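Why does residue order matter? Because the sequence determines the fold. Keep that principle in mind as you read this record.
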Amino acid sequence: MRPSSPAATLQSCSQGNCAAQSRPCSVAGTGWTSILGTLLRLARRVARVTGACRAPAMSTAPAWSTVTEGSAQILLPAGQKDVFYNPAQVVNRDLSVAALTAYNDLLTEQGRTTPLTVIEALSATGLRSLRYAKECPNIGTIIANDLDRGAVESIERNIAHNAQLDGNDCDYSRIKVRCSDANAVMAEHHRGRDRVDIVDLDPYGSANNFIEAALKALRSGGLLCVTCTDIAVLAGSKPMQCQAKYGAMPLRARYCHEMALRIVLSFVSQIAARHGLVIEPLASAHIDFYVRLFIRVRKSQQGANDAIKKLGSVWQCSGCESFQVVPAVQPKSRKANELTQAHAPDTGNRCKECDSVFKMGGLWWMAPMNDVAFLARLQAVVSSPTCTLATRTRLQGMLDGLQGELHDVPLFMCLASMCHTVHCEQPPAQRVRSALINAGYRVSRSHTLPTAIKTDAPLHVVWDVIRHWVRERPVKKADNENAPGYKILSRDMRTEVDCTIVPESAGVGKYPSNPTENWGPMARAKRGAPAVSPAKDDGLKKTRVDEEVAA
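Structure:
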């Protein structure tokens, strides 16, 4: 039996019977409430028959915005939830462009002329690959990979967008887009001529799962670029996670960000040694909420065997800022080429300054984290009159700070924490540094902390400078004779302190403030949400990261 039409249904109802239900209609002789209810039921029946209740199809095309960073421009959907992009990482990308330029200059001086091959294993929007292709000299094939289909569509869209903007100015066919697991892509380059010159790892969180595949994909002399944003893990807030991820125990101390760099270097070095590789850190920096490292990797079985010499542990006093570095191994007494296990520090298990117990962390990288010559190359690139990097001023200050550090002195003491321990006001940092220089020792700052005292002076000399300051400005000693500050101030001075100010070179600002609010990490991108291609440039919201950062 054919179903009745909507018109017939309404006509039947108007005559007092519901044909569809074969019973007297409830509309007749009822109140308005009952009438309205009946009309609603009838409207729903009509809608089911005619499909009239379906909402008109809405356009699924998202609103698009353009972001210009360096010489590249990318398209982002409104909300940025399907593809990850963080404007705070512009410093990272600017530094990477400068590092690849300096690395190419280094290879050119060594006689290398063929184009460099690059793998960006976790590409997201493809912005970094686009900037490498447009801004770095002598770049050949770039493999831009991401596991997420939405990210891959974003990469392809942004390549097409830049090709439309630039015409024939840049060969975008060099950028090969892949949608695969990062380790699988790098595994395709583990042999012979398939190996590449540069691997860039910039994951959301830790890069620990990608290091081994990246090292095996590099040619001897290749460059590994690593970003880790899990600072809470590396800086000591989550020691068990750090041990699980990096095989190192962190410590809660004011040098925690330098410690984070040394933990990553130790992790990379130990993995490299398994494959007969040795690492040479070219530049390592803590920036905002992450660490960024540029590491050259060479094939050397002897270097791999000797890698343990560059690792060590740290004994940190639980009561004051004192610490002692203990190498992982030491030479045998008669055979310098043979190594044996290191001994415990000569201080015993108690701090000589405050008699508190030690806490032990490690293994960490204890060799230099930066190559002075490469830092000079980086500074030359950033300071060049032709440099157009948006964060140029900040990079100059950061590199100036890195160059001024004592590279052969691991870790540092914090002036503010030392004064807090003995309950005195903080002396001018320049006065403390001058006193150490006048005593015949070297001293520098650290790019990770403005109040750092990085020095090769023995611990008692540094504390003697503080004791000298307290004698000039006496403080009330703590009533508790077991307090660390009381014990430190009770000790006799063994150093003649001369606080005559030593002039320091004036440079650009090394510790700039954040350029905008909420300058930090962002939420992880939602995976598996393919974006819809935008229409022609109609209604595109345009922003320029360069202008925001430079402001």
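Confidence is low (pLDDT under 50) at residues 1-30, 51-59, 505-509, 529-551.
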